[in-house]
Give the backbone structure.
Amino acid sequence: MNVSLPTVVSRSGRFAAGPSQDVAAFSESISFDWRLWRQDIRGSLAHAGMLARIDVLSADELTAISAGLTEIGAEIEAGTFSWNSALEDVHMNIESELTRRVPAGAKLHTARSRNDQVALDVRLWLRDEVASVLDDIGALQIALVGLGERYPAVIVPGYTHLQRAQPVYWAHHLLAYVEMLARDAGRFIDGRERFNVCPLGSGAIAGSTLPLDREFVARELGFVDAAGHPRLTQNSMDAVSDRDFIVEFCSAAALASVHLSRLAEDVILWVSSEFNFLRLSDAYTTGSSLMPQKKNPDVAELTRGKTGRVVGNLTALLVLLKGLPMTYNRDLQEDKERLFDSAATLRGCLRLMAGMLEQAEVRTEVCARAAADAQLLATDLADHLVVQGIPFREAHHLVGAVVAYAEGVGKSLDQLSVEDYQRVSPKFPSSSPTVFDLGQAMARRNLVGAPGTEQVQRQLSLWRARLSTVSGEMGLEI
Ligand code: ARG
């Protein structure tokens, strides 16, 4: 972006002189709010159309203003527009350039303030951004489902307290993240439902004495309900000072980032020599400048690290808002860097994690060795005793005693003989338990939501079908 150094502009009206260079540099927002240019122009086109309807603009003036705005938009898009930081923000830059080119541009700000303009622009920007975030979430879900589908028979230990607990299909572990991401998508969609309301017409704080057609503007800009009725903010003071929608977006982004950070942490564990379940492609890892053997999972580590920033942005916003008196206060300009950063950071993490998983390979033989640990099926053995009529608490105790016995004789549970079992307790059946057949053990886990053979296959194909209807947004509605 091309922003010129601040120059002091003299302001008309109440002010004899403009702000000092230092103040201008301190207070400008163009260096970051230029991102709103598309939405600013879109909002101005709708506002101008409305002003023509109520005869504030003539048809010719509307034509000239619309052409001017479109031309400026094309130049911004092409990168030839030069922003002036002395003009503070994106709204003033575009309007003053328009007025320089089209005299009628001086009428465009009728009954409008930057206070309702910025509230509008950010809502429009967020609408586009939510759509993109949903696409990115959908792409990561597809990558997770794909990585599960490529290894449908792989079983790994599931962990609690980072201790081996019970066996799960590899795909089941990945699908846990698909579920989390679906809830994240739901939170963005839910927030959009609340912020897709038009604030324009609220003016600086108190609306306008002119007979604005707010409903026309809302319809023009797509602020409508399912039946096509315009949705308007109902209190001008709230409308110009409300930033709930930014907080909600950044909150959804923070939680989504936390989910990504957990996934990143799992990946970091999986690629460690200690686990060794996963191999990342060279493209998503880096070496060490000193240790020639190193292959580091930097993308996962950075995703985990960047989560701190996204969580911090949410905190910064809440603190920004907590002491503000009604209504607009310049403090609110500080909302945008947090918002843009959260959105860009989250989207970057979603994209990179998806790319990394698309190219990852599971070390199936290592997983098979880890999943063959018979202790993972100790609970199955207790269940087996329960079926024989032994109360679970007692069964738990008996199996615990067997585990201790096995440790003592240096054998695994499945290596113990019937005699060994009966030595621990005659309550163990006299035939050798079949619980240690992993294939059968997985087939037995057939409850909804369980990591059993049938259930996991069902979940994989359900998610595949949902996600192939394109975005995460579609997937959610099933
Ligand atoms: N740059 C400002 C912001 O981001 C726009 C609104 C300024 N309004 C004002 N009265 N100074 O909040």
Observations:
- The beta strands are 3-4, 83-84, 155-160, 163-169, 278-279, 361-362.
- The pocket of arginine is lined by residues 29, 33, 89, 114-115, 118, 328, 330, 332-333, 336 (CB under 6 Å).
- The chain has three domains: 3-9+19-110, 122-369, 374-474.
- Confidence is low (pLDDT under 50) at residues 5-10.
